Amino acid sequence: MNKVYMISVFAENKPGRLERVTKVLAEANINILAFSITSTNGFGVIKFMVNKWKEAYDLLREKGFTVSLNEAIGIEMKDQPGGLYEVVKILSSKGINIESASVYVAETRKRAYLIVEVEDTSKAKELLKDENLKFLNPEEIQ
Amino acid sequence: MTGAKRGDILQNSMTYGLFTGAFVMHYGAEKIGILVIPAGPGNTERQINLMRDFGTTMLHITPSYALYVASVIYDKGIDPRRDLKLKRAYLGAEPYSEETRKKIEDMLGIDIYNCYGLTEMNGPGVGFECKYKEGLHIWEDNFLMEVINPETGEPIPDGEIGELVLTTLNREAMPLIRYRTRDLTKIISEPCKCGRTHRRISRILGRSDDMFIVKGVNIFPQQIEQVLMSIKGVAQNYQIVLESYDEMTVKVEIDRELFDGKIERLIRMKDEIVDKIRSATMVKPKVELLEPGTLPISEGKAKRVIDNRTI
Amino acid sequence: MFWNKEIECINEEQLKEIQLQRLKDTVKRAYEKVPYYKRKFDEVGITPDDIKRLDDLRKIPFTSKADLREVYPFGMFASPLREIVEIHMSSGTTGKPVVAGYTMNDIEIWGEVMARCLTMAGATKDDIVQVAYGYGLFTGGFGVHYGARKIGCMIVPASAGNTRRQIEIMRDFGTTILTCTPSYALYMAEVAQEMGIEPTNLKLKAGCFGAEMWTEAMRSEIEKRFGLNAYNIYGLTEIIGPGVAHECVEKNGLHIFEDHFIAEIIDPETGDHLPDGKRGELVLTTITREGMPMLRFRTRDITSLIREKCSCGRTFVRIERIRGRTDDMIKVRGVMLFPYQIEKAILEVQGVEPHYQIVITRPQHLDEIEVMVEMSKETFSDEVKHIEALKKKLERRIEEIVGIRVKVTLVEPKSLPRSEGKAKRIIDKRSLSE
């Protein structure tokens, strides 16, 4: 299993913060595939999955953003009622706690993936390997 | 000195505890036979209920809290002149202006007297205003006072502003000789209309060091710095912003290298900062986490305290 | 060790003589100066002259907390306001709290009984007493302060809260006696360990713990954690504050200072007098208070009287540790709390429904209150930051009313269990069983 990455950017809750980050990515022609924002009183963390993660990470760092790169797991969801539930059920039955989640819909719009960050990625992968799950292949999004 | 006597009811809204403000007033009032309500600060609604139900005649309170309480009294539709029995208030523990005094006096229909003191010198009770409200009489039988140039340590003539230096004359447990208060004031040597011969000082005009006061508590930027430096995930740069006398905001840049994308960790870190600063200074701060590079980096001595309050 | 050996070891006959004289004086004072008592006496057709023997005390009607609220604020005072020098109030209740007024002499007595308590815990002039009970309207801080001052201890009036600082002070000042609520003591031990300070390395030798119910198990835990002797202290605002009773070195029941307070045990349902050893509601009468004499005050605390002679030499009767409360009031971190107070806050704030549940836990030896409140349908579909603001608002309002911080959790509409009849509002998960 190759690796999928999420990029996290620290942001104060102020107007224009998201704009600044996305502008950098747009100008470098980097495609945002999945995205989420968690915010609390005063600050938040913006998370992206992009096609060129290494390039995006280096670029954001260079531009002075507070960035971190974390491995994630992409799990395919069936496009039918209960699709998300099936996946989440398996994760919780294995005691895997989701730290962040976002959704990536493949370009063909035929498949959707739940992208999760968990505490211990390699352990989670190990726990999930025998389950009947299809994982997102990083090459698919390059 | 200000007309307080047996039969008066003093509501003491200063913090009881290690902070000396409340205790000394408590002891002093009970000595005269004044009824003391040890209300402590905060819980404004209860403060006002106490004033109304108990017929409080005197308050001991910080100026910033007095302003707040007065505004809440109005919000509740209470007319202090009609519904309350307040006659006077003793304000201290933080600098405030003549305008603030007038404003609170007008709002509550009372007389306000300045008091001055510091923990090292028995707390409040070092100096007090008489009814003419023109400077604070220092009890010269208990304290010897001088005003010096804070830079050179040289004495300064009466009437000029400098740092107040006090010597205790009759204290057993902890005598202090030429204690530098760091408070800026001037000596008023003209005799007072009230007849007291003890000389006066003007209201406190500022500090000769970088200490600042929030909620009546003295805080040094170094205390905050020590806490921040002990916390992993915080960068070197920080700033303390003061907009009012009861709140301080500490702005902290996060450490780019230690950022791991987890918001829970940031929240925990923020809580830790709040907790530790509170424990170091006794004041709960508002903490803002900032992106690295947001705070101005000053050349030479960093300007850590941005005091936007006006006296 | 004794603070006042002559009185603390007085023989029964002499004690009864003193008690009777003081009781007569107090009853007379109450009858003449407090209209409430005169009315109560008239209602049952007695006068102070009917009190001829100690047992005649039982002829006097009870005084309840509700009675005290009725005469708020100063209706129980037997001294003119100009004689009253200090006021305290029962914590936490809204509307009409219970007010206690003290004359200079009452403050002296308070200091005397508290000095006896602290001496029982081993305090001398050489000790450093850290007072981590709250100061202010609450009686805890001041009571200990007055006692420690009488003995001449070095007092550190730390007041409650700011735990890290408390521990730094204990370490830096070499505090030898700690006074606070037992749950707070245990919490301090944990925080000390987090700070890398081993609590047994502190110089603490004893602690006086009270203002909330606690157990023998908690005592052993506190003693083990700090390596100190933990003593149980009892008192209440209506009577004087802390200092009504305290444990001696035997740690087997709390001696009531009978030269100032007379204790009875009654059946809380019928009001009948119960014999020694039998559990029931503690009823207290003050026999020296000037400012606010209290006749047969129903404490609502459940305990029993131990009349057997104590090996410490004190002749004062003992009560066993408090076993419970007679009403639904809950005591959290030493503060009294009633479900209706929480309800009041909820009803005031828009965006929530009056369906709530109060969950009390003691995760790290410190009581925590979580109030679960159902959001209204509108709120539920609103933005997260509005919900967050609503939660904060409720927390603030509840804190204003009850005086302690609670955690509010907003839950989905219709998610709390609905009960038939009386709703189960309080879920007390603290374990107080021995």
How would you describe this protein?
The complex is a heterotrimer of chains A (142), B (311) and C (434). Helix content of chain A is 28%, strand content 37%. Chain A is an alpha+beta fold and 142 residues long. Chain A folds into two domains: 4-70, 2-Layer Sandwich (VC0802-like), CATH 3.30.2130.10; 72-141, Alpha-Beta Plaits (2-Layer Sandwich), CATH 3.30.70.260. In chain A, strand 2 and strand 3 form a beta hairpin. The longest helix of chain A has 11 residues, at 17-27. The radius of gyration of chain A is 15 Å and the shape is globular. Chain B contains seven helices and 19 strands. Chain B is α/β, with parallel strands linked by helices. Chain B has helices spanning 21-32, 44-54, 63-75, 80-83, 98-108, 221-229, 263-281, and strands at residues 9-12, 35-37, 58-61, 88-91, 111-118, 123-129, 136-138, 143-148, 162-168, 179-185, 187-188, 200-201, 206-207, 212-214, 217-219, 234-244, 247-254, 286-290, 305-307. Chain C is an alpha/beta fold and 434 residues long. Chain C has helices at residues 5-8, 12-33, 35-44, 65-70, 104-120, 139-151, 163-174, 182-194, 216-226, 339-348, 377-380, 384-402, and strands spanning 84-89, 99-103, 128-131, 154-156, 177-180, 206-209, 229-236, 241-247, 254-256, 261-266, 280-286, 297-303, 305-306, 318-319, 324-325, 330-332, 335-337, 352-361, 368-375, 407-411, 426-428. The mean pLDDT of chain C is 89. Chains in contact: A-B, B-C. The interface between A and B is medium-sized, with 24 and 18 residues.
